[in-house]
Amino acid sequence: MNTITEPKILELPKNKESRGYLTYIEKDLHIPFKIERAVWRYDLPMEEMPVGYACKNSEQLIIPLTGSLEVLVTNGKNTSTFFLNKAFKGLYIPPEYWVKMKNFSSNSMILLLGSEKYNEEEYVYEHYEFLKLKNHE
């Protein structure tokens, strides 16, 4: 069972080889959830993405494969900002956190890993709906 209750930077294995660096994720060793979904985003706008979102049940890990970005996360009371720019470090986000990504560098590509298969009902795209979900209205 996962005991991480707040967003946190997780360091993944990083091995130097003659051909460059190698980073990997193995089941039950490097992240606190079973991966059910992998999504990568690229050709990202250099400003902020037009929408934020929250997942009701899914845990996430955001890994910057190339470039850098800022991620703002809030539980409705406390807000934190994380700067991601290392392909061997990912931002773990528990369920029920609002996520807003911005300030992408040119040629950024991010990998998002999720603990749940895609289900449109799982996502909240309106901040006021997120606040209702968190009972902070």
Number of strands: 12
Q: What is the fold named in CATH at topology level?
A: Jelly Rolls
Number of domains: 1
**Shape designation:** globular
Work out the radius of gyration: 15 Å
Largest sheet: 5 strands, antiparallel
Class in CATH? Mainly Beta
CATH superfamily: Jelly Rolls
Describe the structure.
The chain has 137 residues and is mainly β. 5% of the residues lie in helices and 42% in strands. The strands form 3 sheets. Strands 1-9-6-11-4 form a 5-stranded antiparallel sheet, with no helix packed on it. It has one helix at 127-133, and strands spanning 8-11, 14-17, 20-23, 37-42, 53-55, 60-66, 69-74, 79-84, 89-93, 98-102, 109-114, 123-124. The protein is built from 1 helix and 12 strands; from the N terminus they run E-E-E-E-E-E-E-E-E-E-E-E-H. The protein has a single domain (8-133), classed as Jelly Rolls (Sandwich), CATH 2.60.120.10.
Topology:
Layout: E1 8-11, E2 14-17, E3 20-23, E4 37-42, E5 53-55, E6 60-66, E7 69-74, E8 79-84, E9 89-93, E10 98-102, E11 109-114, E12 123-124, H1 127-133
Antiparallel strand pairs: 1-9, 2-3, 4-11, 5-10, 5-12, 6-9, 6-11, 7-8, 7-10
Protein name: FdtA/QdtA family cupin domain-containing protein
Pfam families: FdtA
Domain Sugar 3,4-ketoisomerase QdtA cupin: 7-134
